[in-house]
Amino acid sequence: MNKKNIDILSKVESYYSDYGQRARELKNEGKKIIGYACSLVPLEIITAAGCIPFRIRGDVHDPITKGDTNLETIACPFYRSCFDQSVKGKYDFLDGSVVAHGCDSMTRTYAVWQYTLDLSYSHFINLPHTLSKSSMEFFRAELNTFIKSLGRFTGKEISDDALAEAIGLYNENRDKVKALYEFRKPDPPTVSGTEITKILTVGSSLPVTEANNLFDKVLEELGQREESPFKKARRIMIDGACVDNIELVKLIEDLGANVVIDTLCNGTRDNLPHTETKGDPLSALADRYLDKINCPRTYRENKDQDLQKELESRFGDIGFYAREFNVDAAILYVYKYCDPFGFEVPARKSYFDSIKLPVLYLEDEYSTGTIGQLKTRIQAFLEMIQ
Amino acid sequence: MKYFAGIDIGSTMTKVVIINNGIISSVIGPTGPEQRRLANKVMEEALNKAVLAFESINYIVATGYGRINVPFADKQVTEITCHAKGVANLFPEAKTVIDIGGQDSKGIKIDNGRPIDFVMNDKCAAGSGRFLEITADALGINIEEMGELALQSDNPAQISNICTIFAEQEVVNKLAEGIPLRDLVAGVLESLASRVSRMVKRLNVEETVVITGGVAKNAGLVKALSDKLGYHVSVPSEPLLTGAIGAALLGKDLVMKAEKDGQYLERKKRSLREIEIL
Amino acid sequence: MAEEKKKHKKRRTATKAAASIGPMVKAAIGGTIKAKEEGKKTAYSFIVCLYDEILRAMDIVPVWTENYAGVCGAKRDAERFLERAESLSFSRSLCTYALCGLGFDQWREELAEMPPDAPWGGQARPDMMLSSGQILCDPRNKWYQAAQQFMPDVPIHNVDLPYPFYEDDIHYSEVQDYYIKHIMEELRGLVAFLEKQTGTKMDYDRLRETVDLGERTWNLLHETYELRRAVPTPMGTGDAMNTMVPMAFMLGTQTAYDFYAELNKELKEKIARKEGVIENEKYRLLWGGGLPSWFALTDFNYFNSKGAVFPAETTYRMIQPIYNMYMPDTNDPIERLAWRWFGYWVYWYDQARKRPGSHPDVEWLIQYIEDYQIEGVVMHEAFSCRTWHLGLIWQLNQLAKIYKPIPVLMLGKDGSEKKSNRELPSLVLESDIIDITTYSEIDTRNRIDAFIETLESVKQSKTN
User: Fold this and answer.
1) What is the number of domains present in chain A?
2) C86/B201 touch (CB, cutoff 8 Å), yes or no
3) pTM confidence score
4) Residue A13 lies in a domain
5) A195: CB partners within 8 A, 6+ apart
6) Is A373's CB within 8 Å of B123's CB?
7) What is the Cα–Cα distance from C352 to C343, expressed in whole angstroms?
8) I need a surface site. Which of A227, A271, C158, C357 has the fewest CB within 10 A?
9) Cα dihedral angle (B15, B20, B22, B24), rounded to 10 degrees?
10) B93-234: which CATH architecture?
């Protein structure tokens, strides 16, 4: 095996376990680092402004302590952990943070972030909930407000060229992620879910040009794998929101299954939809972040009042990936206190039933403390689908 | 003659069952912190009762919360699969299993001896036997007395708190206020039955409903559960053993299937003595 | 269960107006059930969604699903509906109004009739459901969509109603043009949907009148509640949890306006007689945030028994005087509604900029503390509602940081007494809006007792 490429996977490991090390280096070089925690924040705009978008993560191994003095425990546990880590100084290299209108947990706590972390820059992007023509126009105007605001912060207006360039780079990034996912299609897959999770997580901590570079090297390395290092086993799909660490995937894979695809925020939801390059870039971005990203927070109208059609329009991407990647069963993984997914669980389960895919619904905290409980359920599920 | 063993390490009790065509021997002992040593001890006791040597066992399956702490087991299977198997063997018409253990409770839908859906509550003491232990203690009675006492009540007290700690406060207060003990105990059992049935209703409950686990011996609880679910709840004669029985039966299935395929399943360990307890 | 209901003490209200609400709500719920016979269309509706007057102008009967859940909660008969929702795989951590409604709806659909002994006759099956995507609340976006799984023939319309957040570097006037434009478009979209459902056209003259009545009701309610500044206060938050009903559920009707005119009169009479909520008013408190526990409104009476009253609250005070807002010179009722929405949400923004470290939510608290002579702040954390309960702890912390109005004498290190200023004492209560299993009366009362002692001790150490 190519030594250069063995190094790339150890580099991924290093960036994963010491998350943010590159951002810290870049900060010391004078770059501005802007933190975000949700897939709905337009990274292209941050990049076009000359700043580095940095995805804030929680820490499943670190119990939430300091964060609780200012933020209620009834918020999404993942988001609370992100806040807790921030308050503990884990991300003290951040110059600013951008919050999108994803869900109540992040929206209703915007002031708490603003005031507690006291960063030089803070901005809230108000995505509409519906997909009407007026919503798109409104969202375009909101993005424009964001551009002006970020321009004031950096002291430099964001040019159309810079925006077009950033859009191009992120589209490339998504093509590379798609290519990475191709390695999950064979049976057994050539790359594990655990590895992919690490690679993508690391990617979200780097400037897009460096992430693209890293993905290229990883693709080369994976291309060298003549046969899969893994065994043939049940092919599992994970459906849910933000899973920013390997613990769940690793648990499933340690129990003897292969996680081959997902519809997660840090997975396909975030990483695959492209931004249209023809026409007005702001409208294209509005379209990508509001419509192309399929997140339960965006309301998709049931136009025909046909339940089956509606499930298809809301969850069709799940069915698409399940077929493309030859999935045997799915795990629906939802955090406690999650409204957007919580309200959808019965509908999502119905959808899985309609495509005849066995599904295990797990409601979890954001902590390794629940691993034992998850293990029993996942193992029982795997025993059930034998 | 083939022999199969099942060992079920629960949070409060460890159970071993040895079978061939029926149950040859069974042992129930309290689980302690040293699960490995205990597993060995209970296994030895069961072997002695059956007058069998360790090497004569064809296959050992471990289940339960402590299943990873059984080094001499040939396979680990979750208690969901084992209870399904065990109950189906005792009650062929069973479709719903409710297991209430010392620290958790489960609901399992079964079909042909296999689980097809399940729900669990392993996050909250108030949905398990622990709730009864704590409230029995607070009321100054033995947990074994609870069932009969409750059945004497025709006016169960309403315990509104779901947290074990608050509920404990509440029953003590109510006792001081002069509410009859039997009504309080009935209220406590209703409270637990409520929580368990609430969880179980997430499955599509169908008859025959069978209850397992230590709490199944509590006739008052079984009645309360029956009332909440709207179905008769059957109780095995030895409700603590269904997991171990299922485990042993699963071992038997594996060995029989292997034979049909012309294979031989290796035992992991040749002797109990080999295991060093650290 | 019946035993428990009997033992549950009856709530006392301070005003006749508040006492009249129960029958009013019952009649309204009965009205929704009769609507079909009367040939009227019904619509599942949320409060504070800007469409009240629009519905009234088209004779559409709103079915207020949050209100119905509140009624089940107050009657302590919500558990069976919550359990049912759970059995459908809805997490117990979701909004318990929604869980109650979803459980109820699924049961009603399964039986093809009302569930047995449904409180006050039950919740009527709607002809349509009106969701609202806003910053306010995720359940307003997802609840009816989830309910549609049990009622696939009932259409939903989702009206998006954003408002701008408070930012350091952006004044709301910079964004108001496109916000107002979008809000107006969304309202027009809603009107179009309703026209299609009813087969009738909107009568804009009628809407103009209804909106005008709504605006006058807002102003009247503001002036009425301001009467509670009196010492002793004639009305507390306990009553306000009742008197919010016309504002939240009947806006745009003459009934609502008349109700507040009556309340206004009643409060003025009480003030003239120097009649307060209680005889010996010792502590004036602000209910600074959090929906109440509908099953434990008697807790307000418990506060009263300790000499504490609540002259003001932010919860369900969802109005501000229109005459203090920007309102363009226009006859278009849709435009007026849009500006009213916008003006309400940015009401405290300019004031907040004037005080270092402040924020509109905190500024609102400070204003009431000063206007109503408040000595302590109470927050209620209801676990299932992220909308109204995230940020309450931070608000208290920030308030304590920037606003220290109580002069006290502190003992310095050298033994001498030093004048210092401290923040208001505060109390956080925890349970839920509907789910009674989260409520511990013993624990709640303990906390209230301890808080009263704190209030007393601060009072003692207060200097001039």
Assistant:
1) 1
2) yes
3) 0.92
4) no
5) A9
6) yes
7) 15
8) A227
9) -50
10) 2-Layer Sandwich (3.30)
Instruction: Please work out, in degrees rounded to the nearest 5, the angle formed at the alpha carbon of residue C337 by the alpha carbons of C331 and C341.
Output: 145
B-chain CB neighbours of A376 within 8 Å are 65, 78-80, 120, 122
Rounded to the nearest 5°, which phi and psi values hold at C161? -130, 85
Contact assessment for residue A142 and residue A290, using Cβ atoms and an 8 Å cutoff: no
User: Mutation test of the interface with chain C: which of B117, B118, B121, B158, choosing the one with the most C Cβ atoms within 10 A?
Assistant: B158
C356 touches chain A (CB under 8 A): no
State how beta strands B23-30 and A359-364 pair: unpaired
- Chains contacting C (3+ CB pairs below 8 angstroms): A, B
Handedness of CA A70, A73, A77, A81 (dihedral sign): positive
Equal CATH topology for B3-82+241-260 and B93-234: yes
Q: CA of A236 to nearest chain C CA: how many angstroms apart?
A: 21
C:268-307 residues touching chain A, CB 8 A cutoff: none
Q: Are A108 and C386 within 8 A, CB to CB?
A: yes
Per-residue model confidence as pLDDT tens digits over A211-265: 999 999 999 999 999 899 999 999 999 999 999 999 999 999 999 999 999 999 9
Q: Residue A104 is part of which domain span?
A: 22-162
Ranges of each domain in chain B: 3-82+241-260, 93-234
Of A145, A299, A363, the CB nearest to C175: A145
Residue A283 is assigned to a structural domain of this protein: no
Interface test with A, best of C363, C394, C397, C438 (most A CBs within 10 A): C394
Looking at the DSSP bridge assignments, the partners of residue C285 are C376
Using a CB-CB distance cutoff of 8 angstroms, which residues of chain B are in contact with residue C86? 198, 201-202
The sign of the CA dihedral B223, B224, B229, B235 is: negative
Residues of chain A found within 8 Å of residue C178, distances taken between Cβ atoms = 137-138, 141-142
Taking the domains of chain C in order of start, what are their residue ranges?
Answer: 2-463
Burial classification of residue B269, based on how many CB atoms lie within 10 Å of its CB (0-12 exposed, 13-18 middle, 19 or more buried): middle
Name the burial class of residue C268, with classes exposed (0-12), middle (13-18) and buried (19+) by CB atoms within 10 angstroms of its CB.
middle
**Taking CA atoms, what residue in A is nearest to B81?**
A380
CA distance A49 to chain C (A): 17
Which residues 278-307 in chain A show a CB within 8 A of chain C? Answer: 296-297, 299, 301-302, 305-307
Token representation of residue A281: 């870039």
**Both tokens assigned to B9:** 């390490």
ipTM associated with this complex: 0.95
Q: What's the length of chain A? A: 386
Assign domain B3-82+241-260 to its CATH architecture.
2-Layer Sandwich (3.30)
* Phi then psi dihedrals of residue A330, to 5 deg: -130, 155
Contact B170 C442 (CB under 8 A): yes
Assess contact for C246 and C256: CB atoms under 8 A.
Answer: yes
Q: Give Cα C417 distance to the centre of its chain.
A: 44
**Residues B74, B6: contact at Cβ < 8 Å?**
no
Mean pLDDT by runs of 10 across the 464 residues of chain C is 46 90 92 91 95 96 95 92 93 94 97 96 96 88 95 94 95 97 97 97 98 98 98 96 95 96 97 95 96 89 96 96 96 97 97 95 97 96 88 94 89 82 92 82 89 92 75
Contact A129 C179 (CB under 8 A): no
